[in-house]
TrEMBL record, chain A:
SUPFAM superfamilies: ISP domain (SSF50022)
KW Metal-binding (keyword) present: yes
A Pfam family: Rieske_2
Protein origin, superkingdom: Bacteria
Name of the protein described by the UniProt record: Nitrite reductase small subunit NirD
Keywords tagged on the record: 2Fe-2S, Iron, Iron-sulfur, Metal-binding, Nitrate assimilation, Oxidoreductase
Domain spans labelled Rieske: 2-103
NCBIfam families given in the database record: nirD_assim_sml
InterPro entries named in the record: NirD (IPR017881), Rieske-like_NirD (IPR012748), Rieske_2Fe-2S (IPR017941), Rieske_2Fe-2S_sf (IPR036922)
Ranges that cross the membrane: none
CDD domains reported for this sequence: Rieske_NirD
Gene3D superfamilies noted in UniProt: Rieske [2Fe-2S] iron-sulphur domain
Gene source species: Actinophytocola gossypii
Chain's gene name: nirD
Automatic annotation (TrEMBL), chain B:
Protein name: assimilatory sulfite reductase (ferredoxin)
Family per similarity comment: Belongs to the nitrite and sulfite reductase 4Fe-4S domain family.
Gene: nirB
Domain of life: Bacteria
Taxonomic lineage from the root: Bacteria, Bacillati, Actinomycetota, Actinomycetes, Pseudonocardiales
Residues annotated as domain BFD-like [2Fe-2S]-binding: 411-458
InterPro entries: BFD-like_2Fe2S-bd_dom, BFD-like_2Fe2S-bd_dom_sf, FAD/NAD-bd_sf, FAD/NAD-binding_dom, FAD/NAD-linked_Rdtase_dimer_sf, NasD-like, NiRdtase/SiRdtase_haem-b_fer, Nit/Sulf_reduc_fer-like_dom_sf
Length: 105, 825
């Protein structure tokens, strides 16, 4: 379990990246509805560590982030790519404890 | 053995014939050699009058053939030896042929009035003719200048427009009692006269020209009705005659009124010799329009490759815009059929005349005439010879008859495309007009069938959904109006009140752009920051390895050595890959997110501002060096470019906007490849709009000419604001203009003539933009909250992204791309 930041460090409907002790990067998202999600920060299509910089929104009610590189969408709950279901990114377990965002890693 | 096809004449029809042969001749059966009398590549003669807009012959050029076609320009054929199957050209070349196609067109008919050959008398057929008229007109040194056009048909009115655009006052003399007697009836002619007279053209109908006499430096034209006109220049536009003398000398048969006699295969009685276009007499008729000529070209191309096509009865329907007045005529316009009935709607108030001609039992549409408003043309023309679908008065008043258009009706007469072909293309996936154009060629000729194409798309159920995305059913234009008029200032408010869900990467940046172009404020203020694409979020351009590039504004491309050194030093210190852009500035690549503020601190301190290379916004106004240095420059293009770039910097728009200013007609700034382009003239500036490079390059089109600097800026203000307000998301100006009903003419009406009365509002909106501009990067540097976002990691603010690495290439750093990331379990 790693405390990565305070919940207040995350802007609603926007992502931020955090560096884990292992060297992995997670993309944290706080939706306007108040939920927090964590995915791998690395866009599997471009291989760049940019997913946290994508626009957060919903498609058909599913919370998604759009990769800033080529705009594929990833389901924030499952990491699955909406346009290509064979592709997904890792999902990290995340919760908020006493105003702190904690990632299971 | 390859056979040789010799084509005599490189006009519109000869050009089409060669294109059609090349398209069909996959096996390379024919070697193609074209002789052209005119020394320039084939051009669009139908659009000849628009040459006066910019004197750019290149714009009129028809598509070039592939390299295997041999085109000998400026070398007319002077004789044909049919026994030996050879032609001889003016340069002395003798060439054998297996097939010979005559496509020599027509020559202008000059009535034998005394004085017709005096200096100052011209004809109107070629680019060279127009150059001659321009040259002569430029030498007239006096205030009010006048010109006489002999002939009030299509050609005469085209000539009158050209002369008016050259600054002369035209008089048109027509022998018949009304203008365009071939196309329109007396009622239509009367309205046409009224509309044309309103446009400063004096009409003398029902009289001829008796003589032209010299009077000092001027000419006096004496008309049959006793009128004497003092003019500076005369243009004969009294019809054309087929150029058949070459054929006659070779012993080929000519028609009663001239023209090379051919059968329905367009072949003469010599099986090796064919004739197409205006020089051909087919079925006893000579045709003076391009569509029948194109149809003949297709027939001969088919025949040369073993086909059996024949030339059916020609469609003489025409739709024209003469001096801005719509005129259309189709089918039996003069109601010559036995017992034909006429239904007329003559609206003198709105200035439109519409007539339908019906069969004696009122069941079949035979033809019609439209003057002043020809919008019904696309729907009516294909119905000729078919049952009248609805009550004829309703049809004239604009009822939609498309549903009943039969499958074999011709939608596009320029390219002979039937409704069935269009429907087929739609079924195969063409979902918009550009796709239909590319796939069927329909709409790529005169363009008059484009409204019909739209209608057929609609009927086929291809709903051109205007919805921005799943969160908003409104189009961008509608949302813009909502934002502008309701004062909604946040996305969450807008989506709550006018949309559904939480938004996405389509609607959020689009709304962010609308908020930016309506209200000012910093693009990263408050909730707006979360709406921005990563480029706008970090005010830099994302590159493929997750780093960013930095582009400081260099207005007009002018930069001092000192500032150049600042850029060089920053690039050196941060290891940035440096490249000169196409827009006359410098792009610095490979900047890490956390370095952006420090890089910009140094740039801002040296006086640089954001270049908005990351935004859908004004990018650059490129310039040539202009009259300050250049020996040829006639205006100070650099000063104007800087003024324009500073005026519109920071303007958020549906797509990026690029511009250029050239100091003379040599056009070194390539302004005509820009969204707006300015080219200096002796007297001021010409303004071109809606060009672009990119995937589908388009030349910008002339909006106004010879305006002074203040007028220029005012018109660009209006143009840009109108575009910002009414274009779709990610629609460049060229696609926007194409989608405007009425195209360039409509745009001119709105932003030059102010027919919608919106110009004051557009100007005021631009004034607010100019007033409220401030540099976005300075805004970030001055605000600790905004600065805090420029980190790679929320839990390690100073740490660089460890996945970003570089290698060297040609002395600079370039990205090393990551392998597919391993998913650590
Ligand atoms: C101002 C204007 C407006 C017009 N508007 C319309 C319109 O709106 N709609 C419409 O349908 N039509 C219009 N037309 C008519 C249209 O341009 C013609 O129908 C069309 O150009 C005919 O094509 P063509 O190839 O038969 O003849 P042309 O285009 O005249 O080409 C014939 C070519 O052959 C060359 N030639 C002649 N003799 C020889 C030789 N011995 N050797 C080599 N070359 C030779 C000529 O120099 C010429 O270049 C307009 C014409 C003009 C002038």
């Amino acid at each position: 379990m790693t405390v990565v930041c305070a919940l207040s460090d995350l802007l609603p409907d926007r992502g931020a990246a955090a560096l884990l002790p292992s060297g992995e990067q997670v993309a944290l998202f706080r939706t306007g509805a108040g939920e927090v999600f964590a995915l791998s920060n690395i866009d599997p299509f471009s291989r760049a560590a940019v997913l946290s910089r994508g626009i957060v929104g919903d498609l058909d009610g599913v919370p998604v982030v759009a990769s800033p590189m080529h705009k594929q969408h990833f389901d924030l709950r499952t990491g699955t790519c909406v346009e290509d279901r064979a592709v997904s990114v890792r999902v990290y377990r995340v919760r908020v404890e006493a105003g702190q965002v904690v990632v299971a890693a | 053995m390859q056979k040789t096809l010799v084509v005599v004449g490189n006009g519109m029809v000869g050009h089409r014939l060669v294109a059609a042969v090349r398209e069909r001749d996959r096996a390379g059966e024919w070697r193609v050699v074209v002789f052209g009398e005119e020394a320039r590549p084939a051009y669009d003669r139908v659009a000849l009058t628009s040459y006066v807009d910019d004197w750019d012959a290149g714009r009129l050029a028809l598509a070039e053939h592939d390299r295997d076609v041999e085109v000998r320009l400026g070398d007319p054929v002077v004789s044909i030896d049919r026994a030996a199957c050879t032609v001889t050209s003016a340069s002395g070349a003798v060439l054998g042929y297996d097939a010979l196609v005559l496509a020599t067109g027509s020559y202008p008919f000059v009535p034998p009035v005394p004085g017709h050959d005096l200096p100052g008398c011209h004809v109107y057929r070629t680019i060279d003719d127009l150059d001659g008229i321009r040259d002569y007109a430029s030498r007239i040194r006096r205030g009010r200048r006048a010109a006489l056009v002999v002939g009030g048909g299509l050609l005469g009115l085209e000539a009158a427009k050209a002369l008016r655009d050259l600054g002369l006052s035209p008089h048109v003399v027509e022998l018949a009692p009304w203008l365009m007697p071939l196309q329109v009836d007396a009622g239509g002619g009367a309205l046409l006269r009224r509309l044309i007279t309103d446009l400063d053209v004096t009409v003398h109908a029902g009289t001829g020209t008796k003589a032209i006499e010299r009077d000092g430096e001027r000419l006096v034209a004496k008309l049959g009705n006793g009128t004497e006109l003092d003019v500076d220049l005369v243009v004969f536009a009294a019809g054309v005659r087929p150029r058949d003398s070459l054929a006659a000398a070779a012993g080929l048969a000519l028609g009663e009124r001239g023209g090379v006699v051919v059968d329905s295969a367009c072949r003469t009685d010599d099986p090796h010799v064919w004739a197409v276009g205006e020089c051909a007499c087919v079925g006893g008729r000579v045709h003076g329009l391009v569509a029948p000529g194109y149809a003949m070209a297709e027939v001969v191309a088919d025949r040369l490759l073993g086909g059996t096509a024949t030339f059916a009865e020609a469609d003489t329907a025409t739709k024209l815009k003469l001096l801005g007045v719509d005129v259309a005529s189709f089918g039996d316009a003069h109601a010559r059929a036995e017992g034909a009935l006429e239904v007329v709607l003559n609206d003198a108030v709105s200035g439109s005349y519409k007539k339908l001609v019906l069969s004696d039992d009122a069941s079949t549409l035979l033809g019609g005439v439209l003057v002043g408003d020809a919008s019904a043309y696309a729907a009516l023309r294909p119905l000729v010879g078919r049952p009248v679908p609805v009550d004829p008065v309703g049809l004239l008043a604009g009822a939609e008859p498309a549903g009943t258009l039969p499958a074999d009706a011709q939608v596009c007469s320029c390219h002979a495309v039937t409704r069935a072909a269009v429907d087929g293309a739609i079924a195969e996936g063409c979902a918009d007009v550009p796709a239909l154009k590319a796939c069927t060629k329909a709409g790529t000729g005169c363009g008059s069938c484009v409204p019909m194409l739209k209608r057929l798309l609609g009927e086929a159920g291809v709903v051109q959904s205007k919805a921005l995305c799943e969160h908003f059913t409104q189009s961008r234009v509608e949302l813009f109006e909502i934002v502008r008029t309701t004062g909604v200032r946040t996305f969450s408010d807008l989506v709550a009140r006018h949309g559904t869900g939480r938004g996405c990467d389509v609607c959020k940046p689009a709304v962010a752009s609308m908020l930016a172009s309506t209200g000012g404020g910093h693009v990263l203020d408050g909730e707006q920051a979360a709406l921005q694409d990563t480029n706008d979020h970090f005010l830099a351009n994302l590159q493929r390895n997750g780093t960013y590039s930095v582009v400081p504004r260099i207005p007009g491309g002018e930069i001092t050595p000192h500032r150049l050194m600042v850029i060089a030093q920053v690039a050196q210190d941060y290891g940035l890959y440096t490249k000169i852009t196409g827009g006359q500035r410098i792009d610095l690549f490979g900047a890490r997110v956390e370095d952006l503020p420090a890089i910009w601190r140094r740039l801002v301190d040296a006086g640089f501002e954001s270049g908005h290379a990351y935004g859908k916004a004004l990018r650059t106004v490129k310039s040539c060096v202009g009259s300050t240095w250049c020996r040829y420059g006639v205006q100070d293009s650099v000063r104007m470019a800087i003024e324009l770039e500073l005026r519109y910097r920071g303007l958020r728009s549906p797509h990026k906007i690029k511009a250029g200013v050239s100091g003379c007609a040599r056009e070194c700034a390539e302004a005509r490849g820009k969204d707006f382009g300015v080219i200096a003239t002796e007297h001021g500036w010409n303004l071109y709009v809606a060009g672009n490079g990119g995937f589908t390059p388009r030349h910008a089109q002339l909006l106004v000419s010879d305006v002074d600097s203040a007028t220029l800026v005012r018109l660009i203000d209006r143009f840009l604001m109108f575009y910002v307000r009414t274009a779709d998301r990610l629609q460049r100006t060229s696609a926007w203009l194409e989608s405007l009903d009425g195209g360039l003419d409509h745009l001119r009406e709105v932003i030059v003539d102010d027919t919608l009365g919106v110009c004051a509002d557009l100007e005021a909106a631009m004034a607010r933009h100019v007033e409220s501009y401030s540099d976005e990067w300075r805004g970030v540097l001055d605000d600790p909250d905004k600065l805090a976002r420029f980190t790679s990691f929320v839990n390690a603010p100073g740490a660089p992204d460890p996945t970003v690495t570089f290698r060297e290439e040609r002395g600079q750093r370039v990205p090393v791309l990551l392998g597919v990331p391993e998913v650590v379990g």
